[in-house]
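Every protein is a chain of amino acids, and every chain bends into a shape of its own. The fold becomes a row of whole numbers, each drawn from a learned catalogue of backbone shapes. The protein below has been through that process, and both of its lines are reproduced in full.
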Amino acid sequence: MAEPHSAKSPRPTVEPSVFRSIMGRFATGVTVISYRRGDTPTGITANAFLSVSMDPPLVLVSVRQSSQFIKHMALGGYYGVNFLTEHQQDLSSHFGGRSIAGLQVPFNEALPAPLLEGCLAHLIARVVDIHPAGDHVLYIAQVEHLRRGIEAKPLIFYSGAYKRIHTHNPELWNYADGW
């Protein structure tokens, strides 16, 4: 086991551009984290999203400190997680900071957090813990609502670009057995 880093040992030097490039080699799904900015539904694109615990069901999203999300999300607040399909790249771009003029955003606002229509799956989670982490903030939330969406191929992000993959036929899966 490696020795823990101490103030006396030299700090490892990691070039940010190399770090970003290496981390880009890890393929991820793409989500839009939806929330309310006052009374207005909005969202941010995030691929830094993961399951943390099954019992209780917890998820985590990592958000840049410069994001508007941080100004509107606190302990006890709700956010939605929308798993995007390969045909929703425009929504990913829009909520990722490249606004698309005239884009009709299909929000469903009936639950504690707005959700985007036409996604693979949806979660609504209540924030239970917030942790600053470098230039990001980690929001851990307990899942309170789940909804399976449409059957479609996922939007994937890999090596700095959107990618498409082939998926298995879900009708062949036996959910009771896991496959």
User: Anything to note?
Assistant: The chain has one domain: 28-159. The mean pLDDT is 86. The longest helix spans residues 16-23.
